[in-house]
Design goal:
This protein has 11 helices and 14 strands. It is α/β, with parallel strands linked by helices.
């Protein structure tokens, strides 16, 4: 009898919720308040990472959580490990990490998950065993192929070019470069020649020096693609005050605010990126939903991501923000990030 009454009461509550215009799924999928979520960027002082982390903190504030950003000042493969260990000791509800190295952090993130801490990677993925969800900027293949397509337009479809990457172990950089190389195999790019992949280690001065070295080593260079916000800004800065200005195209991935002056002074014609603030925002909501138990990270599950709406988890726990935007002189002043 008591069981029947409880069942009836539950049914009446469910009917009332539906009648009020709230779905049962939405009612069950509320994010808990008071969640402790820590962001671990590649580098604490990287301008791109700062924007992404600020987006994450904004989301955490929305769902009344406790957010913080901790991380290294260098982009070394193991530089994030000590911060992960500290966060485990502090018993965070979730860790959101942009990995400097796909494998170096995995044992420590597995330790975190074993203790009930949810792990979301974003921007630069860990090995799949090191997280439950990966929040990707856009489809990796589209980003890589798009970089070659844009460069080809900028240099007339022929000539030597170089890639100025971040660190040799950066997951996102290496994946994009792989797809760039695949795109180059198409017949229409037969006159494009990739002469060098250089690494600036996401350090402004090293990227600046690497740009100088590329121009000295390859006097016929017609383009530099830097799929890293630090690299593209450093390359543009060097070329803007060199005889190569107007002769060597600089493109890649950067933020409108850091690249605006180079677009306006003619050093850079066009480049691409997504909104890193939205990327961090989405990662925070993914972490909060994991920590709240509304999702587990399985393919096909959906969750609410605040102002970004409902998002669905794809293969291998991947959630995609959306396609990148191409910025040029015609639209760059419409963006502020």
């Amino acid at each position: 009898m008591k069981r029947t009454l409880r069942s009836t009461r539950a049914a009446l509550i469910a009917v009332a919720i539906v009648a009020a215009g709230v779905s049962l799924t939405a009612y069950a999928a509320e994010v808990k308040s008071g969640l402790k979520i820590a962001f671990v960027p590649k580098q604490i002082n990287n301008p791109y990472e700062v924007i992404a982390d600020d987006g994450g903190m904004s989301a955490i504030k929305e769902f009344k959580g406790e957010g913080k950003v901790v991380g290294p000042s260098d982009a070394g493969a193991s530089s994030q490990v000590s911060y992960i260990n500290t966060l485990i000791t502090q018993r965070q509800d979730a860790i959101v990490i942009a990995a400097n190295d796909a494998n170096a952090v995995v044992p420590y993130l597995k330790k975190a998950m074993a203790q009930g801490i949810k792990v979301v990677s974003f921007d630069s993925d860990t090995g799949p065993a090191g997280r439950q969800i990966f929040v990707n900027q856009a489809n990796a293949e589209a980003i890589g192929r798009g970089q070659v397509q844009l460069l080809s337009k900028l240099i007339g479809g022929e000539g030597e070019f170089a890639i100025l990457s971040a660190t040799p172990n950066a997951t996102n950089q290496n994946t994009w470069i792989k797809w760039m190389q695949e795109e180059l195999k198409k017949p229409e790019y037969s006159k494009l020649k990739l002469v060098k992949i250089a690494y600036g280690n996401d350090d402004d001065q090293k990227s600046f020096v690497e740009t100088q070295g590329l121009l000295q080593a390859y006097p016929n260079l017609k383009g530099i693609v830097a799929p890293t916000s630090v690299g593209i800004a450093a390359a543009a800065r060097y070329i803007s005050s060199s005889p190569a200005k107007g002769k060597v195209a600089v493109t890649g991935l950067g933020t409108p605010n850091q690249m605006r002056s180079f677009v306006k002074n003619g050093t850079v014609t066009a480049f691409q990126l997504w909104d890193p603030g939205q990327l961090g925002y989405l990662a925070a909501y993914a972490a909060a939903n994991l920590a709240s138990g509304t999702i587990t990270g399985k393919e096909g599950e959906s969750f609410d991501a605040g102002k970004l709406g409902k998002r669905t988890i794809g293969k291998e726990g991947e959630v995609i923000l959306g396609p990148p935007t191409t910025f040029d002189a015609n639209n760059i002043d419409k963006y502020n990030f």
